[in-house]
Amino acid sequence: MARRSPLNTAGPRYSDGAVRRHKPDHWLLVLSGLLMGFGLIVLYSISPGLSASQHVSQSYFVSKQLIDVALGIAAFAAAASMPLGFWPKSAKSLAVVALLCSALVMVMPVDQMYQAHRWIRLGGFSFQVAELIKLALLVGVAQFLAEQYRRDKIADFQSTLKPLIILLLVVAAIVAKLQSDLGSAGVIIAMMFLMAYVAGIPLKKVMMVGGIALVVAVLAISTSAYRRDRLATFLHPEKDCLTTGYQACQALISVGSGGVMGLGLGYSVQAYGYLPEAGNDSIFAIIAEKFGFIGTVIVIVVYGAIITRLKRIAEHTAGMFQKLIVAGVLAWLAVQMTINIGAMVGLLPLKGITLPLISQGGTSLIFLTAALGIVFQISRYTSYSLVEPAIDANETPTTNYSFDGRGLRRPRNAPLVTRPRA
Amino acid sequence: MAPSRPRGAAGPHRVSTNHRLRILYAAVILIMGIIVLRLFYLQIIRHDHYRQAALSDQLKQYTIAADRGIIYAHQGDNVVPLVLNQKLYTLYADPTLVNNPNASAAKLAAITNGDEGRYSQLLKTRPSRYQVLAKRLSENQKSKILALGLPGVGLQAQDYRVYPQGALAANLLGFVDDSGNGQYGIEQQFNNQLAGKQGMLKAITDVNGVPLAASRDNIQKNPVAGNNFVLTIDTAMEQQVQDILQAQLKKVGSKQGCVVVMDPNTGSIKAMASYPTYDPSKYYQVSDISAFNDLAVSDPIEVGSIMKTLTISTGLDKGVITTNSAYPDPGYVNIDGATIKNVLPIPENPVTIKDVMRDSLNTGAIHVFKLLGGGQYDQQGRDILHDYLVNHFQLGKPTGVEQPGEGAGGIPNPDQGSALNLQYANTSFGQGMTATMLQMASAVSSVVNGGTYYQPHLVEKETGTNGSSDSFDTKIVKRNVVKPSTAAGLRDLMEYVYDSNYAIYSSQLHPGYNVGGKTGTAQVAINGGYSKTDFNATFVGFVGGDKPQYVVAVMVKDPYTFESEGAQAAAPIFGKITNMLINDFNVLPTSH
Prior knowledge:
The structure holds two protein chains of two kinds. By secondary structure, chain A is mostly helical.
């Protein structure tokens, strides 16, 4: 095959050479399934409390979440069945769709609960645009950075960093300002930042991007009264438990009252109206109340296991695009989990973002499972025969290497040692 | 680790992506470690703190109201309830949940006959979560309101007292306020026994306070219903006495008055009426709280000449006079520089004790006081009179009847003070001392029944919910108050007074029955002296056959009529009550 461009490669190309299509990383499936199933169980057990406070039938939340989980599995399956080449190609169209949705959401009526343009609601279906933006940026930034890498422009300010910074500001403006969703903006920016870091942008420049992100965050917080409140609440917890600090306090009470073993599956009390967003953003605190320290540690260990699998896949995947996709998903999952749990245990201010894979909330679940689906596909093309199958520093783009793994025969200078499978 | 470019080497910038990936991974694992440490701190080290915080929010204590005891009274041979309980409903709203205040207010007001404007105002008072719109709604109104299905509107059941006999005996019953506390009367006196023991539910609840079934920490203690009481009162008698009192007060233009009818042989109070009165089911509409008082118990007054019954009993008992004694009376007495006269002229000298009673001669009572002192006004006379009034007739101290706020009255100290002889001379005919009508009825009872002072009482029986019942046995406070001969003497004298004066009392003779009485007219003390225009009229008497069956004490405050008030204002009440007792309440005629 003469063509080398990775953008129009198709599946079979991966089957030649050292990296054959092999069994995917089923652990990814098992661990994600565990968290989703666990989320369903928790949601089911707190349904009486949730439905009483929101005046809907007891089966409302579970049946809604069942549909969401089914959609999530479908998204996973769909993403996992796409050939890897599909994603770089679709980066542009994804970005266009995300932009269109961002425009559309602005003309939708303001959400009653949050006073923000975050959701596109059509009939009974609601769709959170920021989640689509996350996926679009995951693919887009991975593609862009991989391309820059291939062109060896990764350290170049004009061609790599500047577009990234502009992109970052645009995202901040759209998600944090227009959609008033600082939490999601934070996750997206952290994800981009970490992808840039993994892509090998010089640390100094990474720091510069980080500095800009920090300035944006400070601006975002200082210009919004309720964000200032949330920050003040965070800095002085338990001071204002009845008003602005109510959710933070109730979250701490839920977590702390769980103890070692927890109150038991059916015995959560905080879900009966005390803790806001009990099935959603605050579900970790409910898990802590029900299952205690043992339960929370198990949940974190499962997250840790997924992240370890992701790291392992990223390490052993062949091309820069794939590596960045996996690293991006890792960052997505880790940052979102950290922000959510951090807020529940009082280490971070409250942000309205979900606990990945467990929280009720369809959009977040579907896009994350889609991203995991992509990783699942990538995991079919990892190579464990080499310590570091990926790009070597001495390897120049002029060699027959391409980041899609096409040129992944043994690099010239790679040691001939194999490492036992981790 | 892959070989990486030596620092400072020239060439395109390339760093190991996997190296950075591992740093990222390590950072994530580190953060997870920090979260686990934090969880350890919160869930294990600080567990007790947060568990307490959780319980202080979640664990709520509810009281479960106990049924309040029922109060019964006699109706002939039957026992009938005077006070029952009824569930009524309080209409409240959570304004934050009401979505159409004006329309809701209109619908609610139509059912409750309430003020629509006020309702809509209340329904708009955000951010309040609780506004009471109306109280005491009936079951019927409740179901109508529930049928409206208005959001944010609720009804709460509360027990209220209902009075099957209407406002009967309100002053001795008292009422129960909105917080469930007995006020005045029996309701206050036996509040604890009537209230029973509240039950308690300590439960983990949802944020709205609804107990969660699936909680292991719930504690429930069932309420214990209050005890029931049976009063000595006869409802029919009470009703008639009340009517007679009110009619007479209206006739003589008095604003306050009271009547006690008691059984002198047991101390049971058969009827006790007080005016002004009120409807206990609408106690909250009463503007003048003096209407709540039970005057026969709470209002000691200078009793006036009905006191002569006790002074003369003392004289008879000490043997210084007999019912036939006579003495010369100039019609006035000078003591301690003051001159005391009579209202009526001296009939003819020598004056007899019968004359003293019949014409209510103050000089006659002072004469007895003088005889008690051995013929002079002195310490001995004061001591004897004081001893009889306080230790025999139990004046100057509360009787212990089952009513709150009982007045003790007062008898002058025989040893201390100025013009003691004048004070005691006044006391001998009912001035310068105070007593309640219940004290007077009990004291006179203790003489006419032959000399036993029974504790006056209103409660016959207290029944607990567990079936235990406590009869309030007749309690003797003092035996041998007077000799039987004294008792007979006083009865004769009082009968003589009645028989001589029944016409003035607008009453009639009752052949075959023994009826005796004594009027009183007391000057009212104001500003350290006595009012020239205000008098209180009193009467004490008995009705019976061979032995007195009822003793009646009457008080009419400040009637329009002048002088001789006792006869004209209070005595007709006694007369009518006597008729009523003989006609309707089984007074046994004399056997000979």
